[in-house]
Design a protein that fits this description.
about 325 residues, mainly alpha, two-stranded antiparallel ribbon, 12 helices, 4 strands, about 70% helix
């Protein structure tokens, strides 16, 4: 196991909580419901900020949108890599800030009582959280906002995907993840750049130390009780801090898959997808080794496919 049981459990709990928040947010904006096994069109609140999704009826409509999504991902990843290579920290932080702000507002709108200015209220609540997350290094705010960011993004993509396009998307993303981690190493480079240079990371981020280091820190706190520990002392000790991370893509794609299953087949199949994704991620955490990097999406995708298969067999 790459990380200890406690840290692994915390990551899995945050992953699962985000998945169910995602289902709630996606369902809130969904214009289709499953009633007695039949897909029924219903009225639902529109996505805020003019993020309207086209009405898709035939498979060819979904196929056209699918290729547009792939192209958009290629452009976004290329732009991110380009800006990282040229150390365009200001632009990257502003980009992340805008995405985080909008995604949080989309999620927060679903828990604010419906009234005329609900979206503006959600935006006001999201603004300081997005600012602290991107421009101030605050561990708790970072992880708490992650719980709501990916559900907000998923709500934009679920309406324009069907079961076949999400399957194809998962396969493509898994192949890219394997290439980016095991072959090119681009994923590790981008993660290190975000953490070390930008002080920003897209995903769950848990720093921790071993027992020996914790004991040394405890002794220092006793020695400098009610006093600030001098920076020279902290630097001279060189405390090694480990980091447990789970990338944002590894969180959002299962939400999107579960959301597509929710609008197509109902709640139980969606829960099967979440369960399968959790099993896939858990297996990765159990069999992964320290000081090695692994692509999570192939494991998560396998779990999602297991959940989909079980849905067809059982229901």
């Amino acid at each position: 196991m790459k990380h200890g049981l406690k840290i692994t459990t915390v990551l899995l709990i945050m992953f699962i909580i985000t998945q169910f928040i995602g289902l709630y947010v996606v369902n809130y904006y969904s214009t289709t419901k499953i009633i007695e096994g039949t897909i029924v069109n219903v009225s639902a609140p529109s996505l805020p900020f003019g993020l309207e999704t086209p009405e898709l009826k035939e498979n060819k409509d979904y196929n056209q949108i699918f290729f547009s999504i792939i192209l958009a991902f290629i452009i976004a990843i290329s732009l991110l890599f380009f800006l990282t290579k040229f150390n365009a920290a200001f632009i990257l932080k502003l980009w992340f800030f805008i995405v985080v702000l909008i995604a949080l507002a989309i999620s927060f709108t679903t828990i604010i009582p419906v009234f005329k200015y609900a979206t503006i209220m959600a935006l006001i609540i999201a603004l300081p959280l997005a600012f602290i997350k991107i421009y101030k290094k605050e561990f708790i705010i970072h992880n708490l906002t992650e719980l709501f960011i990916y559900p907000g993004i998923a709500a934009v993509f679920v309406p324009i995907l069907n079961i076949w396009t999400i399957i194809a998307l998962l396969i493509i993303i898994s192949i890219y993840d394997m290439w980016a981690v095991w072959h090119s190493g681009i994923m590790q480079k981008m993660a290190k750049y975000q953490i070390n240079k930008l002080n920003v990371f897209s995903g769950f981020f848990i720093p921790y130390t071993n027992k020996k280091i914790r004991k040394k820190i405890k002794l220092l706190k006793v020695k400098y009780k009610n006093k600030k520990i001098p920076k020279k002392i902290l630097k001279s000790k060189k405390f090694k801090v480990n980091v447990a991370i789970l990338g944002g893509g590894d969180v959002i794609f299962p939400i999107i898959a579960a959301g597509v299953m929710l609008k197509t087949y109902g709640l139980i199949p969606a829960i099967f997808v979440i369960l399968g994704a959790t099993i896939g991620l858990t297996s990765l955490f159990i069999f992964s080794k320290k000081k090695k990097f692994y692509p999570a999406m192939p494991f998560i995708t396998a779990g999602i496919f297991l959940g989909i298969a079980l849905s067809y067999l059982i229901l």
